[in-house]
Fold each of these.
Amino acid sequence: MREPERDRASRPPSPNGGPRIGVYVCHCGLNIAGKVDVQAVVDFAATLPNVAVARDYRFMCSDPGQDLIEQDLRDGLINRVVVASCSPLMHEATFRRATAEGGTSPFHFQMASIREHVSWVTADADEATEKAKALVAGAVRRVALHEYLEPRQASVNADVMVVGGGIAGIHAALTMADAGKHVFLVERESTIGGHMAKFDKTFPTLDCAACILTPKMSQVRSHPNITLWTYSDVVSVEGYTGDFTVRVRHRPRYVIEELCTGCFECIEKCIHKQGKFDDEFNEGLGKRKPIYIPFPQATPSVVVVDPETCIWFKTGKCPQTCVEACERDAFDFEQQETFDEVKVGAIVLATGFKTFDAARAPEYGYGTYPNVYTSLEVERLLNAAGPTGGEPILRDGTRPRSVGIIHCVGSRDERYNAYCSRVCCMYSLKLAHLVKERTGAEVYEFYIDMRAAGKGYEEFYDEILKEGTHLIRGRVAEVTDEAISPEEEGRLVIRAEDTLMGVVRRIPVDMVVLAVGLEPQSDAQEVRRLFNISCGGEGFFTERHPKLAPVSTFTDGVFLAGACQGPKDIPDTVAQAGAAAAEALAMVDRGYVMLEANTAFIDEAACSGCKTCVGLCPFGAIAFDEERKKAAVNEVVCKGCGICVGACPSGAAQQHLFTDAQIFAEIEGVLEYV
Amino acid sequence: MSGEILIDPITRLEGHGRIHIFVNDEGAVDRVYLQIPELRGFEKFAQGRRAEDMPQITSRICGVCPMAHHMAGTKTLDDLYHVDPPPAATKIREMVYDAFMIEDHALHFFFLGGPDFVVGPTAPKAQRNILGVIGKVGLEIGKEVIGLRKEIRGLMNEAAGKAIHPVFGLPGGVSKQVSPELRDRFVAGAAHAVEFGRFSLQLFRDVVLSNQAYMDLVLSDAYTHRTYYMGLVDEGNRTNFYDGRLRVVGPDGTELLTFAANEYLDHVGEHVEPWSYIKFCFLKDIGWTGFEDGPDSGVYAVAPLARLNVSEGMSTPVAQEAYEEFSSTFGGRPVHHTLATHWARLVELVNAAERMGELAADPEITSPEIRTIPTETPTEGIGVVEAPRGTLFHHYRTDERGLITSANLIVATQNNAARIALSVDKAAKALVHGTDVDEGLLNEVEMAFRAYDPCFGCATHALPGEMPLIVEIRDPRGELVREIRRD
Amino acid sequence: MSRPKVAFYWCASCGGCEEAVVDLNEAILDVVEAVDIAFWPVAMDFKVSDVEALADGELAAAFVNGAVRTSEQREMAELLRRKAGAVVAFGACAWLGGIPGLANLSTRESILQQVYRDLPSVQDGDGATPHEEVEVPEGRLHLPRFDDDVRTLDQVIDVDYYLPGCPPPPELIAKAVTALVEGTLPEKGSVLAPDVALCAECPRVDSKPEDLKLQRFHRPYEIVADPERCLLAQGLVCLGPATRAGCGAVCVAANMPCTGCMGPTGRVIDHGAKALSAIASLIEPREPKGVAGLAEELVDPVGTFYRYSLPASLLHGRVGRNGGRSRTERDGEEGAPATAEPAGAARRGGSA
Amino acid sequence: MSEAARIQTDAPDRARPTAERAFEPKIVAFFCNWCTYTAADLAGISRMQYAPNVRVIRLMCSGRLDPQFVLAALRDGADGVLIGGCHPGDCHYQEGNDNALRRFEVLRRMLRDLGIEDERVRLEWISAAEGDKVQKVCDEITEQVRALGPLRLSVPRRVETDETPGAPAPRLVGQEAR
């Protein structure tokens, strides 16, 4: 066969001569020695190339066992260590430490697992001994090529960032700010508050959303440790764990934030006497002026000018009554985008969700029949600060006498989203209660399964049942205005199978409410790429481990809070936001992160600039230098998987402790001698 | 005194061959065997390859005439994928192919076969090579030779990717269009080549035609065989290297038949002898009757001499003039004198140069329309070109994914193999008497061989290799009597 | 000053390497000035006896092209090894086995059967095939045995340097000769070409995206390739990322993908496997069916990835094609002394 | 030549089928650290007995798999190769196992053309919880390869005449220290 011309990476550094290997075979009491002929393995090891010392001991992990290694190293008998004992997942750290204590690199060490992989799983003693020899030979051959590596760490910037100013972001920001960290809170909208700010009441306790949210919002505003950036978004993230550089763009609101006092005189004096344009905060149910504030408690309490609808921006001809009304001269129609660049050690993503677009399910008639509403619209109708002052009245101004609420719109439906959105059952019950309370209407709920797993949720369900809401189990086939009886004339008819009664029912109602599910934000993929994390199949951000690392991501230093990770209700969101904040604090407070030793690296001279590796890295750890046409691994970001190394077509990419040469040597070792 | 003479191998040819001469008790040559001792098996390992890789794979049959294999393979792919290249692509292919004919013929004349004449068959060995040629004609002209070759090879590199093992051929066209700048270089190169051709023809006149000793050698019976000839001709029965119909004429010069490439199996057969790895082609229409010439033997020849014999003229003026001079010198076609091949080669060189110039001047040559994308399922394809050393057939069958299931390759020297065997036999019989032979004599035996510019690398798709020329003389019991090393 | 003596020799090659030397053009006159060519069968009439007459090591260098498939070639290689201070494996065949090395996919018997029996133009009749020893009326004729496999030069003799390419680019040949004359040859075992992959000198590299993923592989005849953009990015299997630079990316300049004739870079043991790894990593689908679909589009992986290097590859050829020889016989094979300890480290250049 | 080298060449070769010794296949396994290697530990902890023919080499991720490793193992004496990684979607490094699959699929296509049966080179997804699967797969591949017989491979080695430099270091063979 052809052999490589040369292999720089495999050339062992030899500050003190060539490799001299010590092999230590552990009895592990009888765990190993009861099956494997330890003496035979030691004798065999002594014959292997570069082996200077071969010993056995009853428990290598004990202090005297470790002392054997340290002493041989200190005596200069050896400069490499192989321990044949249990799994490296058990004691690799132990023996690395011992090797380091002996005065060399902790990575001049290799372990052969002759307990988990040999003595415990092999019936025949001779076969077990042979296999143990093979594994020892592999380790010996490999360790001779181990490089001298120092353990490395990187320091962590104490400042943190929270992206998204909904309840999750607010809670995380306050938690960290209270712990004394400086928090940059970035919100895309002109105010923080998120979806929760739109709700009237929250389930199951029916306490007023504004009452519990608003104080937190103003706390954010006034907290000395929080820099609040609204109407702003993150445009780039560079750097790595503990040292991110984030660039934030501030969009112009044409009002100088520091000068605006929130008196709203300008809105009053706008040349438009009435609101004329669809009010986004009210889901288009109300009208706003070109200069507006989304809702009275908006934080910061600063007005926004919408250049799309403002006459001055559109025609350049307007008496500017708003400017006239402002006592602080806060207007600046020349305002441009501005940018800030900050360095932070950790980032909490709390970018939230969007609701399912009900028009995608045409059978429910949303957009066709004016009296079909989404749940979020009804939230606004029920909100005292909403377009109808809290009265759930129809578009023609009448009160509904009967209301149908359809569950699982866009959820648990293979056509749209297979998952359960978790919150719809409970908020539908809440809406049923509120509608009934305010209008006295008959309320019909059409559900597939009633999911009430939460503290106080089942009790809440019972309450609503008692109130006389009609619960019909079955998926709704369609909403139609085709009447087949006089009773249905002029109303909407919900046609559904009642699976409990086994009949198809037609329920005429005045108002239909679609309980739309929760979906990832439409720009979740861009955000994912921005922060180098991943999305699951449904598009929500993926946590590092669903059970053991639910708020971490595969990018160290980036944490998840709230519904951006998956649908969840307010209690869970707040709990998770607290957890994310705690994890971020733990990292930032420690002040440093340990770096993987087995990182990849690229031999620049051998790199052809083919870029094969760059896109393969799941962590964005490889940057391509366009000037020099070379790829380079950022070893702080690298997690040491070696995907790039396996792919590198010219062997320029290698992985510490897993170089090609080391693995080839191990392959030969496990095969060649036994 | 009887015995055996083994010439192993013959130098200055591309490939590997050995000549085994049996001498009888009267000291006369009994029989000469031309053995080709190697084989590579391209037809076998072509199986399973992607059809579109064949032009590049088969070019490795021979690094001297890689373009011929590349082009034959490419044309086979056209047929295989049932696709016609756009006119510009066809013209580019032919133009590049002409460039190849120019440089290959020049290579042979000045580096390989030519030194026999230019320097002289009995000159010292250290001079019978390109350096000797340079010594004879002068360094300036030597540099001219090298310079032209460099220019033409440069054009091929640019147009085909690489001159040695080109890459530009694809079913339905070529991979790269010709830029106006490159076109201009082709035009200039063609002009140089025509001049160079004239010069070479004059050199031949001066050195060979005017030298009675050489002409006696050329016309001697030892180098004369009356066989059939085969070559590609255009619709006017003029020589064409890239395309056309195959025409076969008999020893008397009359047309035996013409056929299209895809009918080759009806007319061309291969005869196997157990003592050589080369296969011997013959005309099925006549049949295999052994190693003999004449109208009743299916033995035929290809390559420059054969091509001139089957054609009724050349398609370009200067070449036509040279062709007429060639014909009249030998008293009309067909010319059966093997050594006249060297002259025929120069006539072709001029023809290729002129044709290249014509194509380069065609405005369509720079067209971007160089590909027709195949849409049909590949099945079977046959392609032919005239390689410098003669007719070259490629024939592939594939599965529906276009993977080769069968490849048949009949290469130039194979067509000639039987006639070459005849030539060597006849030359040895005429020149060798007894086993007491000298080196110059053996070189003259080799000349019979070298005139064909045979490429046994091609012919056996063998791994060509050169061995020393060692002449072993054995008695009838096989005992070594004497060994001649040609030093 | 005496000029260094050199020999050019061909084993199992096509003659393209010889042509490449001729393609030095006028520089060949300089070469002739600088060195004393003691042996070059294709172009000069010097004989083997001239070589045999030399003292051991008298040749400064022997440039040997072609792979090895017969005993004559082996003997010739061994002779040149004795006579030459440095042996240069010249070209892809000598270094890696080359395209004829694909014959290691077949048995010698099946090759003979195909060539002399099965092909459609072969005359029906007595079914003759060539034999190593044949009786003819006048006496007995011999043919050398067609070996079981194609070997690289360094599987037969110790090789000092490698000149890559099919054929080697003239610039690299000229550089090698210059280094020889000037005594600046690098350490033994070096490949006399840049130790970096072709992308480094490919003019299209800037158009290669950093996150290239392929939904399908195209075959060269299926598309009209954009003459400016990276061919891999267009779905053509280009081995440029896995293949040594030094050729000037001439195939790519002709708008055709690199097929790997310059061999692997210095730290790759098996050209085909490494190229395969890089190309497979570009597959976009991640689920088994989609991945298998793209794998199927690589209809001839051996011919694609091992086009020039099958005999040098880790498996050397198709496994078991020559019957029951077991792996362990390899140590007993001619010309292959067992390496000393530490075997792997030494062979992989890892020893101190 | 060092003592070690002598012992190396004197060592019996288990792959050589002889009259005295039936064919025992050698299998090299490349297991990812987080799932399959951990599963092999679990098999050990659970004392699941399986064929001793499999020698595990630990990689951090199946995405580190270089097809060269598979071929090197076969060349160096393995009769089969097993690759183990996390189940799809579970990769500790997000998509390493996707890359392992891509390389494996193309490699498998090529190995078929090189005369290596599919059963000799396998890719298995084995999660950290599936100790029993380690047992099952190791037994299975051992038996399958045993049925196929030894891998008949004849690979000429590179010829090198250089002396290997460096004398062996002095060695101690210690008894258990007390």
Note: Chains A and B do not touch (no CB pair under 8 Å).
Amino acid sequence: MTPSTLLHSVLREPQRMERLTAEQWNALIRVARVEMLMGTIGMLSTGMHVPDKARLLLDEAAAIASVRQNAARYEVQRMVEALTPTGMPVILMKGSAYLMADLPPCPGRNIGDLDIMVPFDRLSEAEAALKRHGWQSIKAKGTYDDSYYREWMHELPPLAHETRGGVIDLHHTILPRTARLTPRPERMLANAIPTNCGAYIMAPAEMLLHSATHLAYDGDLQGGARNLWDIDRLVRHFAEQPDFWDDLKSAATAHELTSPLARALRLSHRLYGTPSPAALRGKPDLIDRLALRKLRGHDRYGAPTTPISNFILFLRGHWLRMPLPMLTRHLLTKWRARRAEARQAGRENDQ
Amino acid sequence: MRLRIGPAIFDIRSPFGGAIASLRHLYRDYPQGMPDEIYDFTVAALPTTPWRRWFRPSIRLQADFTVEEAVPVALRHALLAFEMGVNMQMALGYRRDIILHAASAARDDRAVVIVGDSGSGKSTLSALLSWSAGWRHCGDELALIGLAGDYSLTPYPRPIGLKNQSIPVMRERVSADRFGPRLEGTMKGTVQHLLPPVDAIQAMDRPARPALIVSPHFTAGASPEIRRMTQSEAYLRLSVASTNQLTLGEPGFDALIRLIRSVPAYDITYGTSEEGLQLVEKLWGDVE
Amino acid sequence: MTDQNSDQEGMMQPKEPEVNARRRVLKLGAVAVPAIATLTPSMAMATGGGVGGANISILACQVPIPDRIDEDGEVVPAHKNLHYDGHQAYYYENGKRGKKKYVFNAPYQGHYSGQEIKDGYLNNRYIHDAQFKAHVEYLQKMRNSGTGGAGISCLMSITNSSYKT
Amino acid sequence: MALYVPVEAVRYEKLDDLSLVFHRLSGETHILSPEMEAIYEAIPAGGADAEQILFRLEAVHGLVEAEEGDPASALCLRLDQLTELGIVRHIS
């Protein structure tokens, strides 16, 4: 068992935590920190007999997650206050949706930036309303990054609150405009479900599709163990509803997202034993193998052990999101930035 | 290697064997080894790039908690890189206590907390308290204040990082074998570590209860002065001098309120180290 | 340790003598005068996070500066044409008849270290170094806009590190 | 009628000089000036409109003055600042 698979097995079967050696704990803690799942296993360990030191570290992580969740709730409140006067529907995405709807991925989950989606034609209106309430674009206008976002991405440059520092990612769809698939945000808006905080969440099938797409397209599967854990929790929860699998299938077809969904279901099945109809999962491919290698490839210090797989996944992530000439330009820009960094490191050591 | 400082165990590794050896030596009085313990944080000092292991060697840190903007450190300053890594883990990852950027020392298990910016004279004052005035050294840089009811202070007695002109001040008073290597040309000028007295290291598991808070202002030639802080002033100073208090939620708020309500806080200004010591002793006499 | 409501209610309906004891004119200050100071959790990272790294990390952190900053600290848009007085670049703010503004490149590594900025402030480097002055203007703008971004937490930690009441 | 209501999820602590309000949800700590403290304390748990709050302030302090404009509008601006920080709610 690798340190990563130890983490996966503890998530599947938390009782294992009562039988770990100190060496296993050390590896587990490292990988859980890297994968941002320490708070999650902290919550899963509630009431279990674990060594004192493990207890301290787990409780600490769970406590921090809960403080951050409170702050995230507050940011949702303030965001809703800012956008309510516009009358536009606002959909909470990912972490904040799980939080406000109290869904099973939530306990101990670290919730950072606030992701929301509004109709495309009301994007600038939403941006203006947020700016009136203290949020500001982080990237300076006119730089490569800003125009890149506005021209090609599925979201605006991040907005940070001027005093609190909380960040909002304002989306109009779930995939970059450069991606080869084009899901239909208007269907997501039409199906959205109101919550009592004043914002909406996606309908179950679409919430899962978004999570799956995010995983399959977020290039290098960074944080994949956590995203797959979200998927596992959501699937097990939603599958209790009678028509869920049918809804999911038709939603995937409508949004042209059957293939990212299949990949997410395959991977979460492999990692966490997530149940799903075999027909929806489809057949494993080379990318699955690379992804699993990466997901399982941490050493006992949490450092990656599979650089080649990771590099191929990195290239693939960018390829999926951009047409080739753009990809070249993008990677070149990144490469130049790194080269400048390296030069500077050299200078410093010459001193 | 594994190393325990106060309540935290660090797993430290590096392909640079010499760096590890000098770390082992500097921390020779601290618990090391502990292969069967669950440790708190891992810190690795790795070559910036693979060839930097041999060619103009320089170090980057890989650890449980890191900041993005850290710059590489030359191998000859490896001790500082480790120190930076260890401090970073405490500042960013340790949440069981309030972490104040402060020195501290105890007498009869009651503690003075010395809070101030670097350059304010905090390290020197804390070195003098423990090496000249018989106080138990509890830390020169981070003070851990408990979240539970009694706001007790957990010692974190790392070697004292002396800088520039404070080095000769202490060399006069302490034998040479308690000093680490002299590190020239660091970002902070010349740095040399001074090991706390062995007793203080051995007593690092014994908590102390804060009884006095001082904020030193060392200005050459200044005449000694004491000014009592209001409670809200003390709250503000300590809150912004903490790496984590604002992120701890209500328990952090509670603990700090209790601390500043029960423990008096003072600004002290002085022109020589001796005067600084005298002011602390005077205030200590008042709280006793 | 009062939860809002409980003690407060008691305080608001005091017996008559207490009211008299507290009677003094309440003066509401000008609006521009801040009446509340807020400590927000993100400040812990900005001020304290750096502190924990032995202050080394504060001074070692990097504050990136974009290329092409004008003398007022504004980023010069990429489409603006530059002219030269010898080696000194400039552009016209609003066409040929507009204000002539000098333009400065980023520092040679593309960023300052915390130490460089701190030293620069202490030595009044901005008085004689027009490039540094422009960069300081830019940093002030970044800082005042309160937005995050690479290096801003570093900058905050340098310029906020001595809190004065 | 627009009411100002103190948010319940806060901790209010009076120190020897100023007062602190800790907001449980946001994790923010607000340090109130004496003037803000007086206003905050004058807002009853059940809520009140600006006029009633001014009346309550006068009951404690006798006289309420403003450096700029009339006390009522100065008070409204301060109440809005409290609302902006989320420690008071404004219900219409």
Note: Chain C has one domain: 35-159.
